[in-house]
């Protein structure tokens, strides 16, 4: 029981590490990475323009006609008994634009109910869901795409329930000749309609501004992606105990080099880097680096691969299969395995 509650709290902290520097928001599960491809590319990317339906969860303006009639299934084997996933479907109507529907869920597992004297009364669960409706359409001679996501959010933690709604809005510029794309996204604009208990305060949900760029090299099998996160929060640094002590000591002065290092550290905390190696059309290798995650969860004396992620994708028959793996901490089991299967149902139609 105690072990599972520790893991549960760690999960919430990890979602905060991926998204918010404070941790005073509800529905933090919205920021968990469900796509194996995105998980391998650092946990967040919003500017990769192709036919992968899983990308739409992170940026609705990436929804395009090449995803029509595609189904995407995603599963994440997280920490301890915690599992979560995401499923989606998209369809394009030439006159009206691109539409999609998805559901994102997380199951924290079953817990034993007991009082302070260790008397057991049964089990209870903790689960959260988000049902998402997507829409996008091209504008300005198809140089840009605009899109939005409407999310209906339900959370049940033991007997405590909450419901809310949120909106994502994005715009993407795509230049096919230059193999370049850029996106801007506003995430989780919304509110909590019902609180977990009667008379409770309405908690904020994890609003965020993001900007990303992706560039594929013309004559080499590499595609680079860089994401700038938390543009609404200029300072993502927190002061260490040593910094607090130095500020309180009148005999310690801060030199320009130290200020420059702090500035560079803060800039890097906003950035997530992704690299895709494309040796063939049907096989891709993916690498990612999340500096903020590494700084907040590493052990100073033994950093290991915290903050790094990797994975691959391949096409087998008509199925696109992806795998991603990310390291959150050196502690045993503090890693996630992400699996994705995409299939376009139109490819199964008989040809006469």
Low-confidence stretches at least 5 residues in length (pLDDT < 50)? 1-22
Round the mean pLDDT to the nearest integer and report it: 88
By helix and strand content, what is the structural category?
A: mainly beta
Q: Estimate what percentage of residues fall within beta strands.
A: over 45%
Helix proportion of residues, in percent? 10-25%
Head-to-tail CA distance between termini: 60 Å
How many separate structural domains?
2
Rg measurement, Å: 21 Å
Q: Choose one word for the global shape.
A: globular
CATH fold-level assignment of the largest domain: Porin
CATH 2nd-level architecture of the largest domain: Beta Barrel
Keywords:
single chain; 352 residues; mainly beta; Porin; 2 domains; 14-stranded antiparallel barrel; 47% strand
């Amino acid at each position: 029981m105690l072990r599972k509650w520790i893991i549960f709290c760690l999960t919430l902290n990890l979602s905060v590490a991926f998204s918010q520097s404070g941790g005073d928001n509800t529905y933090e599960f919205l920021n968990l990475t469900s796509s194996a491809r995105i998980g391998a590319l650092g946990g967040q990317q919003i500017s990769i323009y192709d036919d992968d339906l899983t990308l739409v969860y992170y940026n609705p303006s990436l929804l395009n006609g090449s995803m029509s009639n595609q189904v995407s299934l995603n599963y994440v084997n997280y920490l301890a008994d915690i599992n979560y996933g995401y499923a989606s479907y998209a369809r394009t109507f030439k006159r009206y634009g691109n539409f999609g529907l998805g559901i994102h869920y997380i199951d924290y597992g079953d817990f034993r109910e007991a009082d302070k004297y260790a008397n057991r009364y049964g089990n209870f669960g903790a689960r959260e869901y988000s049902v998402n409706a997507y829409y996008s359409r091209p504008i300005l001679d198809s140089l840009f795409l605009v899109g939005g996501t409407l999310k209906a959010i339900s959370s049940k933690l033991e007997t405590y329930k909450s419901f809310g709604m949120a909106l994502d809005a994005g715009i993407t510029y795509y230049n096919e000749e230059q193999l370049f794309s850029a996106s801007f996204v506003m995430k989780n604009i919304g509110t909590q309609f019902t609180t977990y208990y009667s008379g409770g305060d309405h908690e904020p949900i994890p609003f965020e501004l993001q900007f990303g760029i992706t560039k594929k090299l013309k004559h080499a099998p590499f595609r680079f992606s860089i994401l700038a996160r938390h543009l609404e929060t200029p300072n993502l640094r927190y002061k260490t105990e040593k910094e607090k002590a130095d500020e309180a000591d009148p005999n310690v002065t801060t030199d320009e080099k130290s200020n420059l290092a702090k500035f560079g550290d803060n800039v890097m905390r906003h950035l997530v880097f992704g690299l895709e190696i494309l040796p063939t059309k049907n096989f891709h290798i993916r690498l990612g680096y999340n500096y903020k995650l590494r700084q907040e969860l590493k052990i100073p004396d033994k950093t290991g691969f915290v903050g790094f992620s990797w994975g691959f994708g391949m096409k087998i028959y008509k199925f696109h299969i992806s795998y991603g793996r990310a390291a959150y901490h050196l502690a045993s089991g503090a890693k996630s395995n992400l699996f994705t299967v995409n299939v376009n149902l139109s490819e199964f139609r008989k040809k006469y």
